[in-house]
Write a structure and sequence with these properties.
single chain, 130 residues, Cytidine Deaminase, domain 2, 5-stranded mixed sheet, binds tetrahydrodeoxyuridine
Length: 130
Amino acid sequence: MSLRQAAMTVREHAYVPYSRYKVGAALRTPDGEVFLGCNVENVAYPEGTCAEAGAIAAMVASGRTEIAEAYVIADAAHPVPPCGGCRQKLAEFAKSGTRITLATLDGAEQVVTVAELLPGAFSAAHMDRT
Ligand code: THU
């Protein structure tokens, strides 16, 4: 199954009683496994989680820690960019050149790299005082 199809399918499971905005995310690891996530909202709004965070949590729970590619889809006029927090989460597990595809149900796609999503990313090297 393509990452697009996988992301579309998991998107249907999004729990979004507050925003009514369903997002699906699918990511592939270097060994070819695919992990899925959808957004899960909460009546205490800040407790909601994004689709990307769910997919990353599933990947890490499986024992894997590297994203080879990712696909994020929503029903919008234009491909929706990941939120700031998800950019940082993606950067934790992907190389700067890893491609992230942002898409709409209508078929629009925008491919961006992790470095483009999060220029000047904070990394462990920034904690090095030497
Ligand atoms: N959302 C995601 O799941 N991923 C994104 O990249 C953008 C926003 C969710 C969070 C919330 O449930 C809804 O979309 C509206 O912000």
